[in-house]
Design goal:
This is PepSY domain-containing protein. The chain is an alpha+beta fold and about 350 residues long. The chain has helices spanning about 1-35, 35-45, 45-50, 60-70, 115-130, 135-160, 165-170, 180-190, 195-205, 210-215, 230-235, 240-245, 305-310, 315-320, 325-360, and strands at about 75-80, 90-95, 100, 110, 255-260, 265-270, 285-290, 295-300. The chain has two domains: about 1-45 and about 120-225 and about 325-360, no CATH class; about 45-110 and about 225-305, no CATH class.
């Protein structure tokens, strides 16, 4: 048992100094990104807001979107309708440029600002560390190790020490010496945020290893249920993409249209149940049609498998939006904890190393 405990301590130490550093970077960038809607709106009111709190009339909004698509034609790659903090329509061109338009009048409002680009780059750095191709696997792999080994080993060490006295395990002696204070901060913060960190890490790793997650979660699917319902939805008479803008969906709000890259591709429509909803389960719909207007792919929360319904909630859970403002605040604070754990853990290691070096050897 002594050897096992020593092994767990060493595992926790070296994972903390490696994966803990990456977790610290992810935590800091993620915490800042939590407030992206409020910050970008504050800095870009002329691009993202229209000065009204009333719901946007679907008929006029869709008409404006249709007219903009017809006007800009083949130069477009994507059109974003109002969603989250954005009350306006944005057009993404094939050359990478993004422009914003009023959702009712269709007037040009301006081009993408540097602050909007900053948060887009921040999200990319959060997911990939800014390293092309392999960055997401470094982040995702570290998140898995953080979830499976670093957090669990820390919980094991805490339990072995304080299972008979929980109060002591959550007590900090603020006037203690440096080493004791670092240790207390490390143990209390680690134990207090164990569950939030487990949830954030588990949901975060999904964005790198989504295929594996879906395979495992498929155990929750009804094995006796066929795909008949989905097939019945996808089999329909062909209709042009314009009809999806002229006739809004009764259950969902259209939030984006991805246009074909070439003549062989079709249109991709993305829907969400409430474009401005910031809490509760995430209910979405994805629709793809070929150049002739025939539906080739359709996923709908109402008819989707249990596994797909579950993974659809990973994003709002990961950023706390599923629990509203308080959930976002919890995730924000939780994102600041890994850097504190890394610093306190590093200090403990350095103090221990320094003491070992000072100890005379026979």
């Amino acid at each position: 048992m002594i050897i096992f405990n020593r092994l767990i301590r060493n595992l926790h130490l070296w994972l903390g100094l490696t994966c803990g550093l990456i977790a610290s970077i992810s935590g800091l960038t993620g915490s800042l990104y939590i407030w992206q809607p409020e910050i970008t709106t504050l800095l870009n009111p002329e691009l993202l807001t229209i000065g009204q709190n009333n719901p946007l009339p679907d008929t006029r909004l869709y008409t404006t979107a249709y007219n903009l698509m017809e006007q800009h034609g083949d130069s477009l790659a994507k059109i974003n309708l109002p969603y989250r903090e954005q009350q306006t329509i944005s057009l993404v061109y094939k050359n990478g440029e993004t422009q914003y338009y009023h959702p009712i009048s269709g007037f040009f409002l301006g081009k993408k600002s540097s602050s909007i680009e900053f948060f887009e780059n921040l999200l990319n750095f959060h997911r990939t560390l800014g390293i092309p191709k392999i960055g997401k696997y470094i982040t995702g792999g570290s998140t898995i190790l953080f979830f499976l080994l670093l957090l669990s080993s820390g919980a094991y060490l805490w339990w072995k020490t304080y299972s008979t006295n929980f109060t002591k395990g959550f007590k900090i002696k603020w006037k203690a010496k440096k080493k004791k204070l670092n240790y207390d901060l490390h143990k209390v913060l680690g134990a207090s945020f164990f569950i939030p960190h487990m949830v954030i890490a588990f949901t975060g790793a999904y964005f790198t290893y989504s295929t594996y997650y879906k395979t495992v979660l498929s155990i929750f699917d009804d094995s006796n249920k066929t795909k008949l319902d989905l097939e019945e939805q996808t089999i329909s008479s062909a209709k042009p993409y314009q009809d999806y803008l002229r006739n809004p969906d009764k259950e969902y709000d259209l939030r984006a249209v991805i246009l074909p890259k070439n003549i062989q591709d079709g249109y991709h429509f993305r829907y969400i149940q409430d474009r401005f909803l910031m809490e509760g389960p995430r209910k979405t719909k994805e629709l793809k049609i070929d150049p002739k207007g025939t539906i080739t792919s359709l996923t709908d929360f109402q008819t989707d498998s249990n596994s797909n319904r579950i993974v659809a909630q990973f994003y709002p859970v990961h950023i706390g939006e599923i629990a509203g403002l308080w959930g976002r605040i919890l995730v924000f604070i939780s994102g600041l904890i890994p850097i504190t754990l890394f610093i306190t853990g590093l200090k403990l290691y350095l103090l221990k190393t320094k003491r070992r070096l000072k100890t005379p050897r026979d």
